[in-house]
Design brief:
The protein is an alpha+beta fold. It is 22% helix and 31% strand.
C-alpha cells in the first residue's frame, strides 16, 4: 500500500513540475501573433478602424490599389500600396483635407461601402 501511495505522490510531483515549466515557456513567448489590419500608402502607415461608411466625403479621390499583400503575423513593411490583410487590387481613396484618413472600398459586398483607416503615428 505504501508503494502505491509513494508512486502516486511521485507522479503528482512530476506532473506539477512539468506543468510549471510549460507555464513559464508561455510567458517567455509573450509575443504578438497577428498585427492589426494595416496599409502603407503615401509614405504613411494606416491602421483599420471599425468604421465603415456608405459614401466618401466630398473631394475624396482615388489614389490607387493595393499592389502587395504581406503576412499579418510579421511586422508591416514600409512599402507604398502594401497591406497585411487587404487583397491585391483593393481600391484606395484619399481626401487632402483630412490626411490622417484613407478609405478602402470593401470587396465582395452587395452595396458599395468603404472601410476607414487612420494614420498610425
Amino acid at each position: 500500500m505504501k508503494k502505491i501511495a509513494l508512486f502516486l505522490i511521485g507522479i503528482s510531483i512530476v506532473l506539477t513540475i512539468s506543468g510549471c515549466s510549460s507555464k513559464n515557456d508561455d510567458n517567455s513567448n509573450n509575443e504578438l501573433s497577428d498585427y492589426k489590419p494595416m496599409i502603407y500608402v503615401q509614405d504613411n502607415l494606416y491602421g483599420e478602424t471599425s468604421d465603415v461608411v456608405d459614401a466618401l466625403p466630398d473631394e475624396t479621390v482615388y489614389i490607387g490599389t493595393i499592389n502587395k499583400l504581406v503576412s499579418q503575423s510579421e511586422p508591416m513593411v514600409h512599402e507604398n500600396f502594401t497591406s497585411n490583410t487587404l487583397p491585391e487590387g483593393s481600391e484606395l481613396y484619399y481626401n487632402e483635407s483630412d490626411p490622417d484618413v484613407v478609405y478602402v472600398k470593401l470587396p465582395d459586398t452587395n452595396q458599395v461601402r468603404y472601410s476607414k483607416y487612420t494614420i498610425i503615428k
